[in-house]
């Protein structure tokens, strides 16, 4: 998988540069240069033209955000942010995603070398996946454009009562999730559950970002949380989100630390499967960009329960792993580009449109 991938490693810590470079090299990735700060990272990208960059967030002379912005302007290259588990770093990491970074990977705490060794397969996999992402397009105005277009739907559209939407995503997903939810009108009265593969400490900030960009009331899930129409929950990092019960258009979730499913927690499959088991009103499952196969079984379960299913297409997916596995089940109703997914969701719950 990693064969032929060339990477630049940027970190102000000599120790971390060495650890990350060694892990990538052992995984078959060719580390063509190391950089001590953002300025050196930009220079290395221009000189070596790598397939991917691992970018520390906080660095002297030029931080990871500015370096990412410069790289996207001078020689667009997939960037993977490496971020520590702090609130400040969560804010900065999302800012880097806004500037064009594809995804982020959290630096371990405690015994760094032991932790990095434990996470090495994940790091190699995600760098390999990020390296395949096409970052040449503009993409920055996609959310605004989609929001304007989807909100041009007739106000007179009538929707089925009490619909629930479950969205699953991973690598490259945060911006895609924001785009889809920002384009959903409150009049659709959806109950929305979002499962984005994201570590603890970041999902709260992620929920706040979607809340600011969407008409829906979006919060990070807590154990026992209840939502009704016009509300959304983002699965908390390191917790599976199960639908515990559903009555009179309101659903309640339960958070667990059961074993990872598909090597991840939260897992899309867990939320989708419990939704299929518990919810008897209209149910829509959507799989967006991401590596791995999480969500494929959930899509099967939703389809078997009579729900509707949508997957993002390959052309607009940062990583066509999860959507591809979902499509391969034969249980996906529609495969759509990211700009059309919000309308695709609304089409599944629209009863009539009057002029």
TrEMBL record:
PANTHER family for this protein: PROTEIN-GLUTAMATE METHYLESTERASE/PROTEIN-GLUTAMINE GLUTAMINASE (PTHR42872), PROTEIN-GLUTAMATE METHYLESTERASE_PROTEIN-GLUTAMINE GLUTAMINASE (PTHR42872:SF6)
Pfam families referenced in this protein's UniProt entry, alphabetically: CheB_methylest, Response_reg
Function: Involved in chemotaxis. Part of a chemotaxis signal transduction system that modulates chemotaxis in response to various stimuli. Catalyzes the demethylation of specific methylglutamate residues introduced into the chemoreceptors (methyl-accepting chemotaxis proteins or MCP) by CheR. Also mediates the irreversible deamidation of specific glutamine residues to glutamic acid.
Region (Disordered), start-end ranges: 135-171
Domain Response regulatory: 6-122
Name by which UniProt lists this protein: Protein-glutamate methylesterase/protein-glutamine glutaminase
Gene symbol of the encoding locus: cheB
One GO BP annotation of this record: chemotaxis
